[in-house]
Amino acid sequence: MRSSSKLNQYWTDLYFHLHYPHGEKITHQMVRVLQLIDKKDRVVVNDVANYLDISHNTASEHVKRMIHKNYIEKKRDLEDERKVILRLTDIGKKVLHENTSLDEDKLNHIFSQMDEVEIELITKAFKLLSERSKSCM
């Protein structure tokens, strides 16, 4: 099995066993929009359309629904007042965390069973993958 296949299997195992219970009903596309806004600076509706490979009108409808659910808000860009920037609300940050992160209580339980060397090894590996992943966008 190739390294990438192994890593994908390990990642899906990790997420399956360690994700937060899903409370809020949210679509996969909404999660992706929340991630985009969280990870990128100054996201506008056109960025959402490009990221999801959908029309501007469809992206605008997604954004409207997410504003209605209080996941995101619109703010005028201070540098260019013609632009409207999308930002996560506190509720949006919470929903994003619960739908994309690993449960910290479960992780802490696992880490409590490891020694410092193991924890450091895992942390360094994930940091390296995180840093290198940013060059793929």
Shape: elongated
CATH architectural name of the largest domain: Orthogonal Bundle
Low-confidence stretches: none
How far apart lie the N and C ends?
26 Å
Element order: H for helix, E for strand: HHHHEEHHH
According to CATH, what is the topology of the largest domain? Arc Repressor Mutant, subunit A
Number of domains: 2
- Main pleated sheet: 2 strands, antiparallel
Q: Which class of secondary structure composition applies to the elements?
A: mainly alpha
Number of discrete helical segments: 7
Largest sheet, spatial ordering of strands: 1-2
**Can you say what the CATH homologous superfamily of the largest domain is?**
Winged helix-like DNA-binding domain superfamily/Winged helix DNA-binding domain
Mean pLDDT value:
94
List how many beta strands DSSP finds.
Answer: 2
* Strand residues, percent: 5-15%
Question: C-alpha Rg, in Å?
Answer: 18 Å
CATH class of the largest domain: Mainly Alpha
Amount of helix: 55-70%
